[in-house]
Specification:
about 0% strand; about 100 residues; mainly alpha; 3 helices; single chain
Amino acid sequence: MFDIMSGMFCLVTASVSLIYGTRIAWMSGKKCDFKEDPHNKIHIVLESIPAATAVYFFGFIILFTYLIDGPLTIFVSSLTSAILLAGFVVSMAMPELKRKSNK
């Protein structure tokens, strides 16, 4: 019974952290306007990416604990996945990088 409850708690915690990490990264990408000064854009993106990476990292640590053996492997895989996913979500949310229809 305890194993089932702890597994459910970990699954919910990992899911919530991945959802909130996506929310932070998505809003950071939406704020980036290509008509602004590049210094302001870099400041906005660099301000939010570490927060999204930290939240993603926490979720991936919980997820990879159940999937992979070895603490160093879990740490490296979680950190790599968090950095890549944060950068990918931010770049996908940028308004100028979305596909424009040909009208």
